[in-house]
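Obj: model holo form, ligand = adenosine-5'-diphosphate.
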Amino acid sequence: MKTATPRQMAIFIAFFSSLIAGIVMLITFSIENFNYLLTIILSLLIIFVVIYIFVFYILSAFILNKINPIYKTIYDINIPEDELKSELDETDIVTSAQKDVITWSKRKTREIAQFKQLEKYRQEFLGNMYHELKTPIFNIQGYISTLLEGGLKDQSINKQYLENTDKNINRLISIVNDLESISELESGIQKLNLKKLNIKKLFEESFEMNGILAKKSGIKLKFAKKQDKPVNVMADRKRILQVINNLVINSIKYGKKNGSTTIDFIDMGKNILVEVSDNGIGIPKRDIPRIYERFYRVDKSHSSKLGGTGLGLSIVKHIIEAHNQKITVRSKVDEGSSFTFTLKKA
Ligand code: ADP
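Output (holo structure tokens):
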């Protein structure tokens, strides 16, 4: 309900007070001549003005006194008295203050929920990071201790233990590099360097880089169709190569022997849709919404054995979103997965 402004209330109270005073005066003094009537009207006018000024002053001071601390709390500012006074006169400041407080409390509730969620993520992230780093560090410590305690001279284990140490150090380096990428992407320190590039060429580069891994796993890397024309997009070369490598390596790691990875480009008008499909082990439906989370793996031991850090897809999603584009996945267990993302056509 709309409440009256202090000015309207003052007029209202002054009017009624004058009316009552007028009635009392009329009953008390009998009007015999014109002079009396004039005196009464004049007295009523004075009563009206005095009461009006008095009530208006008291009400304004009271409301200002109550409203100012509220605004100070919700906006963390002291609204100048003059500003509030003029608003007090023009608008229904009590109702609008009520609305402002409700909006403020809703905003605060939302912020608190977000903070709680962030705190949960932070705790999970720290816990996961601790677990990921713990294993290789303890492994390295174990191998080095054994070597120092005499294993170095033992021909049957020394080379193997050094190789294992090297493997664990490489694992630590992968985790640290992935964490660095995520931290750079999340903080937004590194701006994207958008340039026109032929994305087909980047896939060919990735095929070359990962050829040995693919051959070892018996996976064929290919394009869906023969494409002589370049597929030009606007993208950050280094970052998109990171996306492509992650998706291609995943398709090999989670592929099946004698399987294949197929790349397709679809013209969507303003965008190019890029599809990386495999016929590998697939992802269970319940895990699909979580695969972009940091350190999330469907099968932890399988992924670790293959050198996965569980950070790859999280980096991929960050990079695609930094390009203002989307990544999606379709997958079926035992049939395969298909990751698609879009990029602006150049
Ligand atoms: P990882 O380092 O473990 O590969 P990612 O972030 O790249 O981490 O992927 C997260 C998880 O998603 C993987 O552990 C794996 O279980 C699943 N995954 C990713 N790509 C594929 C794929 N092409 N086929 C099946 N599962 C996949």
